[in-house]
Design brief:
CATH superfamily: Isochorismatase-like
Strand content: 5-15%
Number of helices: 7
Number of domains: 1
Number of strands: 6
CATH architecture: 3-Layer(aba) Sandwich
Order of helices and strands: EHEHHEHEHEEHH
Structural class: alpha/beta
Length: 220
């Protein structure tokens, strides 16, 4: 979390304000499951691109939010998951080392596929005053897709850089990206084509969305 400057009462509020937020979905992940090697093949180069995007986002004043599965460890916490993935001999160590959270990053633990389901993500995005979300992570056809769907239902402007998500297969990844592009109206241009400074200064994103509000009338 960013440090408080003492200029305002931050009880119940996040210290940063930004129209845009970068979400890193399930990237602190040990990949210790049957398809872990298969996913790691695609996730390793993806992690390099996400790391570069995250640094660009930081320079542009865009906060990073780790939206991470709790993997059924209900007594665990995010720091414990980071330690497990970095210190133990697990497949996902290379991802956790490359994308290790920084002091001023945010995190949300989720119990299911979507980053919004039964989590504090909605509230955090509201306090940050976010209207646009950039989704990255794994797997594109599962947790990224479910999170993108819920972001769309909440009327967020949606970016899913095609080179910053990965799935078990190339076909799964392409299909998920196409679904997000056509159904959820996501912009899926590669991360290298995202002008983050322009994105943060863009005022065309529509009215401020509040948690629980419905999409505009007539949207299908």
């Amino acid at each position: 979390m960013s440090e408080r400057d003492g200029s305002e009462d931050l009880h119940g509020n996040a210290p940063d304000k930004s129209d845009v937020a970068l979400l890193l979905i399930d990237l602190i992940n040990d990949l210790e499951f049957a398809e872990g090697d298969q996913l790691l093949r695609f996730a390793r180069p993806m992690a390099e691109r996400i790391a570069a995007l995250k640094q660009r986002a930081k320079r542009a004043g865009i906060p990073a939010i780790y939206v991470n599965d709790n993997f059924g460890r209900w007594r665990s916490n995010f720091e414990a998951q980071v330690d497990h993935c970095i210190k133990d001999n697990v497949r996902g160590r290379v991802l956790a080392e490359r994308l290790r959270p920084e002091e001023d990053d945010y995190f949300v633990l989720k119990p299911k596929h979507s980053g919004f389901f039964s989590t504090t993500l909605d509230i955090l995005l509201d306090y940050l005053q976010v209207r646009t979300v950039i989704l990255t992570g794994i797997a594109a056809n599962i947790c990224v897709l479910f999170t993108a769907n819920d972001a769309y239902l909440r009327d967020f402007r949606l970016f899913v850089p095609s080179d910053c998500v990965a799935s078990n297969t190339s076909d799964d990844n392409r299909y998920a990206l196409e679904q997000m592009r056509t159904v959820l109206k996501a912009d899926i241009r590669p991360s290298s084509e995202l002008d983050l400074d322009a994105l943060t200064s863009d005022t065309s994103g529509g009215p401020m969305r509040r948690p629980g509000t419905a999409p505009p009338a007539g949207r299908t």
